[in-house]
Automatic annotation (TrEMBL):
<feature type="signal peptide">
    <location>
        <begin position="1"/>
        <end position="26"/>
    </location>
</feature>
<keyword id="KW-0732">Signal</keyword>
<dbReference type="InterPro" id="IPR023296">
    <property type="entry name" value="Glyco_hydro_beta-prop_sf"/>
</dbReference>
<protein>
    <recommendedName>
        <fullName>Secreted protein</fullName>
    </recommendedName>
</protein>
Length: 324
């Protein structure tokens, strides 16, 4: 199932100093107000650091799924620029610290005989309860999203391509940054939903979605779920599903051309609504955000909700944590 904000989920890295409380405006939809706590991962302090940048965190509680995990939580992330590489860190608290897995990347840009691409990035890991496996969705190139599967969350077996530009309207140039969630849509015979970013020849990015009965074979809406122009953005991306009070929401980053905040739109349980609710998390001007927050992931630890996200300029930021 997908995460409910405020509900249970599922060489040492530097942890930044906590800042004084700066409460944000009340989050729409009854969600917690998140306040920046600290930096969790900084590229310059990682052993595997091919490009000086990291993006797109995904956190999973593994303590109830593995008999001998490295830590209670696995945090997946990646550089974006070539060669990229899907990476892992582990820790015992969502608030940190997290320790870099010593053999990163766990998935590289060359995986014979399946693919050889310039980069792989944007890891999203789903615990597939039916298969009792960790399912990793990741892109490489920006045109293609792939699936790999694992029993331990570290060693993966390649499965297949699940999304490509050829599955969307003519003129689509990118289909990437996908996240997949357990979500029933009986009218479509679906048990899983995917949200992702789409770019086309206009060079403005929207959020699209698809549905699947098994998480492997997908159908896609040919129209955007959230259009950049409808929320006054140049681009929107980094979507994540949340559920609260019997409704479904998409949170996503809004690019205004310079910096950007995390926004929220109610789509309803059947994805039929388009209720744009405004700012979910207002990025701070201070470091490490420097006016930009993006690609959020969510979890709850000890009853406390946390958001782990990109903080800082695109391809020059860090992975940070905020507390609700």
């Amino acid at each position: 199932m997908f995460l409910r904000a405020g509900a249970a989920t599922g060489a040492a890295l530097a942890v930044g100093t906590s800042v004084g409380a700066q409460p944000a405006a009340a989050a729409p939809g009854g969600f917690p107000d998140y306040t920046y706590v600290r930096t969790l991962l900084t590229a310059s302090q990682l052993k595997y650091n091919p490009t000086g940048e990291i993006i797109f965190p995904c956190v999973r509680g593994v303590y109830d799924k593995l008999s001998s995990p490295l830590g209670r939580y696995y945090l997946y992330y990646a550089p974006h620029d070539a060669p990229g590489g899907i990476c892992l860190a582990y820790g015992n608290s969502l608030a940190g610290p997290f320790t870099e897995y010593p053999s990163n990347p766990i998935v590289a840009n060359k995986w014979s005989p399946h693919y050889s691409v310039s980069h792989v990035s944007s890891p999203h890991v789903l615990w597939n309860q039916d298969a009792k496996e960790f399912w990793l969705y990741f892109h490489g190139e920006n045109t293609t999203t792939r699936l790999a599967r694992s029993a331990d969350g570290i060693h993966f077996t390649y499965d297949k391509v699940v999304l490509s530009t050829s599955m969307l309207p003519v003129g689509t140039t990118e289909t990437s940054y996908a996240r997949v969630f357990r979500h029933d849509l009986p009218s479509l015979g679906a048990r899983y939903v995917m949200v992702f970013m789409l770019n086309n020849t206009t060079d403005h990015r929207d959020i699209h979605w698809g549905w699947s009965a098994d998480g492997r074979n997908w159908s896609y809406d040919q129209q955007p779920l959230i259009r950049h122009g409808d929320v006054g953005a140049v681009n929107v991306g980094g979507p994540h599903l949340l559920h609260r009070d019997n409704s479904t929401y998409v949170v996503y980053n809004k690019d205004k051309g310079s910096g950007g905040d995390i926004m929220i739109t109610e789509v309803g349980n059947d994805f039929g609504k388009r209720n744009h609710l405004g700012v979910f998390y207002n990025s701070r001007s201070a470091a490490p955000e420097n006016g930009r927050a993006a690609a959020p992931a969510f979890g709850t630890d000890g009853g406390v909700p946390y958001m782990i996200y990109e903080a800082g300029e695109r391809l020059a930021g860090a992975i940070a944590v905020a507390r609700g």
